[in-house]
């Protein structure tokens, strides 16, 4: 049947991964079904991107989604696998007290960790120009509120800084140190350019670090082996699965509109049998048969 690992065990698993010295790979999932595939392929965890949640709702990534929407989607994805699920909580959806509530809501939703960023609201995609960051002290208050609200000590609170593209790499490093001092378990360094920047950050900051390998942005796409050698602890691929899926959907829809049939697309589709395998249809059928195991034959009328 479905996943059996308790949320507390998933959180311990994520925490142990951060301390293992091995790079943890978290592809992004835009649906529970994608999360199931991420687990089957053999990754370490699942990531839920705020940009992807917004895009799936037909919205740009500028802070328009609500905590309720993000928590609801996160809960659906987190419940689909036995893997830890790590979620983007943007700026915490408001003031420090809102960030504190965000932690409790996402804990209750079954997530294993979240990241909060130091952008000004309304935020924007981390790989666009024109970002603005709050003063370091304001972000420290946001993080302290989040840490104080945490009930499970293994729930990972990550601090994302967008300062490298605004104030420079040295300023981003100083912010990262301040955020770690405020209780952040993990530091997310957004929009670094290439390996040299990642190496400089790793040399300066003792806290576990997260790398964002998103496509078509400001960061060079660095392989997992190189990131591991540099000493990073987590790598996310936040929008990759959505981009692949949307490209395939667009190509297919245009062919159907042009040709009037999808028959030429069949070899590019997931087969019904493969979908049923991923959804574990036989196990559900067996479970149902074992539960519904009585017969009306011989019952007095």
TrEMBL record:
Pfam families in the record, alphabetically? Answer: PEP_mutase
Its Enzyme Commission number? 4.1.3.30
Q: Which SUPFAM superfamilies match?
A: Phosphoenolpyruvate/pyruvate domain
Q: Which cofactors are named for this entry?
A: Mg(2+)
Record-level GO BP terms:
propionate catabolic process, 2-methylcitrate cycle
* Recorded coiled-coil stretches: none
The record's function comment reads:
Catalyzes the thermodynamically favored C-C bond cleavage of (2R,3S)-2-methylisocitrate to yield pyruvate and succinate.
PANTHER family recorded: CARBOXYVINYL-CARBOXYPHOSPHONATE PHOSPHORYLMUTASE, CHLOROPLASTIC (PTHR42905:SF5), PHOSPHOENOLPYRUVATE CARBOXYLASE (PTHR42905)
What family name appears in the similarity comment?
A: Belongs to the isocitrate lyase/PEP mutase superfamily. Methylisocitrate lyase family.
Q: What is the protein named?
A: Methylisocitrate lyase
Give the species this sequence originates from.
Mycolicibacterium mageritense (Mycobacterium mageritense)
What does the organism's lineage look like at the top?
Bacteria, Bacillati, Actinomycetota, Actinomycetes, Mycobacteriales
